[in-house]
């Protein structure tokens, strides 16, 4: 429902808007769906003027079809694949994070989601020399950890301080579930719509600005006790690719291994047959991971702290 | 990209009236006067005024003023370099156990939420009491010189114990006095002042706890010297008679977000204690922290206090900037301390722990 305002299109001045209002035509839909001849008589406005206005409004509000070939060309020229810095994770993701898409990392507490996000941010910022926008909702972002990752690779402070200066190529949200899950369920009926709105904004951002969106999610236990990503069934079609991170259980539960396993739960590209949806890949998230990811100009990573 | 009206923080009734009147985007609302708006949407004048204020704040706010929590509008963004500089200014609260401090990178970090979970009697309350005293250590001794807010839900805050810990801390600092500045600081660091700088709140159920957390930001604005919020314990009021588990999860998530906002917005350290529960999986039982899987994501740092035989161990279970590590500690009459290496070689000989005498209250059982 778009309300008619003066200046929306040439010929729609205040007097005309008032006349139309008097005839109970308030929105663009009303203009488009009513009979122009009858309207012209009722409002004592010229038929031609109304017809022209209607044509302009229709043109303003329609979506134009694009041919498949043009779309393909555009996709080929504009999509970039950003490497995460870790070869096995890249292989899991079909060579990296795709711009224009949302990739989701889910996992329990301490499973390494934030660490992977830091690593990706640092890698994109230094190795690929592009800017990253990092939205932190958990309070877990510490610049000293980013610096640590940076220092493990390059010890020259000049390199560290050099401004990347590239355009923003990635938006990382850690985590999207921390601010949305308090709104879902119960008697609140807005939570779902807010969640879908956030999803819509992220998708449009990714497509229009050609950035790769990486979000993290928490996990819940399903009825049968299996671990699954949070935010429910409504969120599941939003990210194009989903990865589940888990701690690798060792013999003594209190031991601190830095090993994590990443499982591809959903991907529109991997998996030849329709049955093959789970691809397991053990990746070493120990020192080697940090060493690979740690070269980055920390100055070009932008950070925003969001609290609900 | 235009911003839809439904993303503003207004009450749902107001939003519905706006949408019904045809206002989809905030751009539509920019040029209206309150009188016009209230006539078109049948809102009251007051509501129309609030809506327009919210819209103007969104447009004008952006990257400008207004720190983290509270208030609508986008929070300010920083580059990682600026964040690094800010972090270097923030210090940590020492726990008086040097090994735990080393594992945590200096102590309990300010500006983050930390959860301390453990079985009954392992020392969670003791650690909270110790932190409430430690946060007040003057800055010239390496402390923060701040005040503490202690929210007690279990009734385990015992004054006599705090007096003992405070006396030990004062004694410890007075032995370290080297120059005049520290001597002057010691005059204000006495047991009486320590006690007067702890604000104690007693909550009897979860409603009181939630209300208290809602009111805290105002309190913190009035008392800018507060550097620690200790909640002992978060689990207790939420595990009593709670039938609707999904509601509990929602409330806990909201609580966690508010605590994180307070920690970053007001620059305080938040410490919460949690209880343990048993999880049965495939015929085996395991002790895990209580309050469910989603609560595990709420605190930024998780400390697990557990028993290994007759020894008390503290494990860092989850931390974004430190590796997992396990250290041993003990509770003495002076409070939370390191295990003294000379007395206790790492052998299988059973140790006698000097547990505090005057009222170490066993935490309420799971």
TrEMBL record, chain A:
CDD domains: Rad51D (cd19489)
Organism of derivation: Etheostoma spectabile (orangethroat darter)
PROSITE patterns xrefs: RECA_2 (PS50162)
Protein name: RecA family profile 1 domain-containing protein
Residue ranges of domain RecA family profile in the record: 78-219
Gene3D superfamilies recorded: P-loop containing nucleotide triphosphate hydrolases
Coiled coil residues, start to end: none
Protein's UniProt keywords contain DNA damage: yes
Cited InterPro entries: AAA+_ATPase (IPR003593), HRR_RAD51_Paralog (IPR051988), P-loop_NTPase (IPR027417), Rad51_C (IPR013632), Rad51D_C (IPR047323), RAD51D_N (IPR048943), RecA_ATP-bd (IPR020588)
């Amino acid at each position: 429902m778009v309300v008619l305002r003066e200046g929306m299109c040439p010929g729609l001045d205040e007097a005309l808007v008032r006349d139309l209002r008097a005839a109970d035509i308030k929105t663009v839909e009303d203009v488009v769906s009513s009979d122009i001849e009858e309207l012209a008589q009722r409002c004592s406005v010229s038929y031609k003027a109304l017809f022209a206005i209607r044509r302009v409004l229709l043109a303003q509000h329609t979506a134009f079809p694009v041919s498949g070939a043009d779309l393909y060309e555009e996709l080929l020229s504009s999509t970039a694949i950003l490497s995460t810095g870790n070869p096995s994770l890249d292989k899991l993701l079909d060579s990296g994070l795709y711009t224009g898409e949302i990739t989701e990392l889910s996992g329990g507490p301490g499973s390494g989601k934030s660490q992977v996000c830091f690593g990706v941010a640092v890698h994109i910022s230094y190795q690929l020399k592009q800017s990253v926008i990092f939205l932190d909702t958990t309070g877990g972002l510490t610049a000293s950890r980013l610096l640590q990752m940076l220092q493990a690779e390059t010890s020259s402070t000049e390199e560290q301080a050099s401004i990347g200066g590239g355009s923003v190529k990635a938006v990382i949200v850690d985590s999207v579930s921390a601010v949305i899950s308090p709104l879902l369920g119960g008697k609140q009926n807005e939570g779902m719509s807010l969640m879908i709105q956030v999803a819509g904004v992220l998708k449009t951002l990714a497509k229009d600005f050609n950035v790769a969106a990486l979000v993290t999610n928490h996990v819940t236990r399903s009825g049968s006790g299996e671990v699954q990503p949070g935010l429910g069934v409504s969120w599941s079609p939003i990210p194009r690719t989903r990865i589940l991170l888990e701690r690798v259980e060792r013999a003594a539960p209190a031991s601190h291994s830095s090993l994590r396993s990443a499982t591809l739960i959903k991907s529109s590209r991997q998996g030849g047959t329709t049955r093959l949806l789970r691809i397991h890949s053990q990746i070493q998230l120990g020192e080697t991971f940090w060493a690979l990811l740690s070269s980055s100009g920390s100055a070009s990573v932008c950070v925003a702290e969001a609290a609900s | 990209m235009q911003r839809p009206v439904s993303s503003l923080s207004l009450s749902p009734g107001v939003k519905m009236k706006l949408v019904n009147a045809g206002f989809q985007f905030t751009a539509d609302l920019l040029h209206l006067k309150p009188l016009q708006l209230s006539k078109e949407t049948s809102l009251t004048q007051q509501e129309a005024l609030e809506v327009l204020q919210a819209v103007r704040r969104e447009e004008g706010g952006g990257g400008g003023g207004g720190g983290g929590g509270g208030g609508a509008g986008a929070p300010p963004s920083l580059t990682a370099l600026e964040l690094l500089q800010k972090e270097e200014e923030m210090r940590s609260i020492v726990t008086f156990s040097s090994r735990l401090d080393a594992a945590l990178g200096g102590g309990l970090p300010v500006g983050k939420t930390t959860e301390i979970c453990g079985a009954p009697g392992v020392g969670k309350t003791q650690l909270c009491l110790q932190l409430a005293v430690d946060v007040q250590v003057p800055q010239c001794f390496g402390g923060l010189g701040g005040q503490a807010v202690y929210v007690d839900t279990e009734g385990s805050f015992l004054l006599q114990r705090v007096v003992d810990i405070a006396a030990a801390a004062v004694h410890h600092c007075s032995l370290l006095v080297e120059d005049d500045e520290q001597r002057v600081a010691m005059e204000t660091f006495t047991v009486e002042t320590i006690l007067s700088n702890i604000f104690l709140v007693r909550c009897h159920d979860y409603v009181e706890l939630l209300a208290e957390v809602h009111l805290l930001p105002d309190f913190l604005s009035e008392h800018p010297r507060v550097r620690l919020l200790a909640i002992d314990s978060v689990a207790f009021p939420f595990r009593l008679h709670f039938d609707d588990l999904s509601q509990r999860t929602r409330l806990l998530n909201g609580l966690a977000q508010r605590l994180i906002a307070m920690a970053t917005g007001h620059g305080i350290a938040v410490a919460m204690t949690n209880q343990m529960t048993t999880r049965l999986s495939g015929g085996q039982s395991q002790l895990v922290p209580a309050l469910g899987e989603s609560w595990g994501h709420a605190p930024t740092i998780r400390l697990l206090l557990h028993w290994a035989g007759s020894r008390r161990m503290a494990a860092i279970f989850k931390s974004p900037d430190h590796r997992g590590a396990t250290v041993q500690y003990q509770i003495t009459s002076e409070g939370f301390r390191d295990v003294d290496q000379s007395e206790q070689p790492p052998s299988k000989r059973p140790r006698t722990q000097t547990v505090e005498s005057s009222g170490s209250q066993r935490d309420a059982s799971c």
